[in-house]
Every structure is written in structure tokens, then in C-alpha cells.
Amino acid sequence: MPGRTADAHDGDPNPKPAHAPTTSTPSPSLLPPQPAPSALQSHVLFWDRDADNIITPTDVYTGFRSLGFSVPFSLGSLLIPLFFSYPTRLAHSWIPDPLFRIHISSIHKAKHGSDTGIYDNDGRFRPLLFEELFAKFDGSGVGGLSYEELGMLLAKDRCAADPAGWSFAFMEWWTTWLLLQKEGRVWKEDLRQCYDGSLFWRIREERAGPKGWTQGYGWKDFFKGLGYGGTWKEWKVGKGDR
């Protein structure tokens, strides 16, 4: 147009709105970068249904149901906020939360004893310890842990005079087995995705598909095992099975 001066958007097919920085609201490029969530925070984000950085007991129940767990098991999962709400609350107040909410920003404070140590005290993932776990306990070298090998892992991690830690570790690995086992083992890549939380989104997506989630262990598998004259403890997996 005659008399029109060129501006910064001339020639730009997708112009973006300009930002008007002030001392209280600086340019986006000058804002401090937001820290990425730790692996432990990512592990629990699936249960933050409304993305408010808080996990309520209702979130816990709904999350387990969306992963395919039964109503009784999902009700039992309400022990999680009962035991772990207060440790995460301590980063904000000494007063317990009457609603038993879990604060994701301080989830590392809920880390318990007698665990694998794969999460450090800040909730970060330790890849070398993860690799060491399989080097020590995957006796057959197939890339997965059997029920017996998980039992040996639990026994190795037990600290003296720590019954609470023993119990929490057992419940976590039991839940992992019920959710993940395939051909009698918990496989390495599935377990890695469990640690960073991506597994739970994958399960929800597959459950919505035509085939559903084809892994895990339930009553159907238990009776099927008995029908073959044994239990899950006697399933054998060869190197070519996966």
C-alpha cells in the first residue's frame, strides 16, 4: 500500500503477537527456565488428573481403575495417600493435610527405605543402578525378571529394623508384577517405562484400543497356571520368546 512503512511482519507468513515486556513481566526469553520434573515426579504425574500438582485420594482410585485394576484393588490403593500424604506435606507445613493429598513437587520426601535406590534422594533416576539390577538378578539373561528373581531382589534390599520399608517395597513390586508380567517375567523396557511414568499413559492408550492391554497377571492367569499343573513360579521363558 502506498505510504505504508515496512514492519517486522512483512514477508512472515505466520506472524506472532509481539510481547510487551515490563520490569514485572519480562520477555519470555528472559524468564528463568522451569526445571524439568524429576523421574519420580514423572512417575506419579499420571495420577494428577487435573494437572494441579496435587494427587487426591480420588485421583489415586481413578488412576488405578483406568489402568485396569479391580474395584477392591483400587480401593486398597487408597493406602497410598494415607501413608505418603504427610511426608510430601512436610515441604509446605507441619500440619497434616486432612484431605490426604499428595504434593508432587515434594514427592521425593515420600521415598522409603529398603528400596532399590534407583531413585536418588531428589527423585532422580540412576541408570547405572537400573542396569546393575538386571546384571545381578536376571540370571537367565533374557532381559526380564521372574517372580523368584523379584523375591531375591526384595530380600537383598531389606534394611534392618525397617518393616515399613519392607512392606512398601513388597506392595510396589507386587503391583508391578500384576500390571506388567508377560510370559512369567517383568521385562526390562517395561520396567524402565514404569520408572519414568510413560508406561501408564501407554497402558491407558492400549486399553482404549481394540486389543487392549495384553500384559499383567490376574485370576484368569492364576487358574490357567493351575490348569497346566503349576503356578506362575514354574513358567519358563527361553531367549527366543521375546
UniProtKB/TrEMBL annotation:
Domain of life: Eukaryota
Basic and acidic residues biased stretches: 1-13
GO MF terms, alphabetically ordered: calcium ion binding; monooxygenase activity
Ranges of biased composition (kind: Low complexity): 17-28
Region Disordered, annotated ranges: 1-37
InterPro entries documented for this protein: Caleosin-related (IPR007736), EF-hand-dom_pair (IPR011992), EF_Hand_1_Ca_BS (IPR018247)
Keywords: Calcium
Family: Belongs to the caleosin family.
Protein name in the entry: Caleosin
Naturally occurring in which organism (per UniProt): Lasallia pustulata
